[in-house]
Design goal:
Layout lengths: L1 H33 L4 H41 L5 H28 L7 H24 L5 H28 L1
Length: 177
């Protein structure tokens, strides 16, 4: 019974972690776009975005990441899944997700110092990395060994292309307005 409670908490913290990652990158986009505003407006907006980013990061995103990893590690050890191929692939994807998380932390630090290295289009594309990781991890967990790895990789590539086309379409749509 404890296992099921831990699993439920693990899933809840996965959801809050991804919510934090999705929203923090959205705030990065707004911060970057504020860079093109008049000086006074830019200062007010970026100051507010920094407060929002900092609170989201420290109150939701980082604690959710830590709890996801701790609870997931417990579940993996208790269930003895750590030797199965699907779990090893999932762990590889989780390492990519952790890398993404820490790179978002680096971007957060840069923006808090007023350093803008990316365009809003690049940040929009960056936001889709989390989407691809979410899809990959969920499909890996649910389909386990029945997942045809080649079909899965091709499906993710198609999804990535569709996401990139969607970003371009949205950018053109926004420019026309």
């Amino acid at each position: 019974m404890l296992y099921l409670y831990i699993k439920a908490l693990h899933i809840i913290f996965i959801v809050t972690w991804f919510a934090g990652l999705f929203y923090v990158v959205r705030l990065f986009i707004y911060f970057v776009e504020a860079n093109d505003r008049p000086v006074t407006e830019k200062s007010v907006l970026q100051s507010q975005y920094n407060v929002m980013i900092s609170r989201l990061w420290s109150i939701i995103t980082v604690p959710s990441m830590v709890l996801t990893v701790v609870l997931g590690s417990y579940l993996m050890i208790v269930s003895s899944y750590y030797h199965q191929t699907w779990m090893l692939v999932k762990l590889g994807l989780v390492i990519f997700l952790l890398t993404y998380h820490f790179l978002c932390g680096l971007i957060k630090k840069q923006l808090s110092k007023g350093v803008v290295k990316y365009t809003s289009s690049q940040m929009r594309a960056w936001n889709e990395v989390a989407t691809l990781l979410l899809f990959s991890i969920i499909f890996m967990v649910e389909l386990k060994d029945s997942l045809n790895m080649l079909a899965g990789v091709l499906g993710l590539l198609v999804l990535a292309v569709l996401l990139m086309l969607g970003i371009r379409f949205y950018k053109k749509y926004r420019e026309r307005r």
